[in-house]
Amino acid sequence: MFHLENCSKKSPLKSGPQITLTVIISTTAPCPSHLPLSIYPPGSALCFLSSRFHRTPYYASLFSRPVALKALASSADFRGASVVGAKSGGGIGWRTKAAVADTGMATEKGEGKKVSVFDSEEDLAVALAKYIADLSDKVSKTKSSFTVVLSGGCLIKLLRKLVEPPYIDSVDWSTWHVFWLDERVVPKDHVDSNYKLAFDGFLSKVPILPGNVYSINDALSAEGAADDYEICVKHLVKSNVIATSESGLPKFDLMLLGMGPDGHVASLFPGHPLLKEKEKWVTFIKDSPKPPPERITFTFPVINASAHIALVILGTAGEAGPVHAALGNSQNSDVLPIQMVSPAGELAWFLDKEAASKL
Ligand SMILES: O=C(O)[C@H](O)[C@@H](O)[C@H](O)[C@H](O)COP(=O)(O)O
Question: Is 355 left (phi over 0), alpha (psi -120 to 50) or beta?
């Protein structure tokens, strides 16, 4: 199942307590948090190095100190809204008077749906940080974990205000558990990796516990990585880290979704059979129209079981069309993936004015 080794090393200080460093290297256990606590010697400092985190900078840094870490296995063993207000004349389709006066953004409130349009990317980033921090605060007061699912794309740079004061200090990062909505099947240090994107732009700047970051096993095939990720999520549902919906699906506290110019969300592309997947929680694609071709992705049943979804969209390459299809009075016959985002919980749209330009 897993290899366990205790490596004791004398503290570099002449006096003071000695610690035992227990290194868990798991080749099969999908994630650290479901390992039984009873296996750890009392007083141990624990480091987890599972195949999932192989080549993960976070974990590598844990071992950069002079600790007698004996190689336990060869690398070969490591596999792994009704519109409120009148049309404005200024380019943005619609605004509430109060919101314009206050923040320069437009707001639409419908049943569990809120649409906000921002004059600039900077304004969007400021509002997104407040939204996430407020939600983190609210959820963390009611339970011990705040489960957040990240996308790739421009989302990560739009999280930049969250890593600055006041939020860097005020958010209770210890409750955060981070997942990926979709991931490219590439090594974690590859330029196409959504893990790398998130690590460089967000995770490396906030004190989220490394053991609460659930990246894919990049040593597996697309199919294997999808199965492995689903097993990981199932363990976390079982151990109540992730809440459960009434229908037994994982109910993430917050999914942060981007959208491509073709209307795709996650790695669920227009016209693809995966849009109809009802059984799997996590699936894989080998013919993604957006490179790279091999990816894993959460499916619509899981996406729509979320407690909160934030759709974060900049209109840089034709996103206004799909946004109009989803929020306007578009008559298109083919349903785009973005139109299938319909969570049981709350849906908040964060759009820049270009993305909202056809509304
Ligand atoms: O891996 C991916 O490709 C992303 O996770 C993807 O789902 C992304 O969120 C959208 O493509 C939007 O990307 P942009 O924000 O770059 O338009």
Answer: alpha
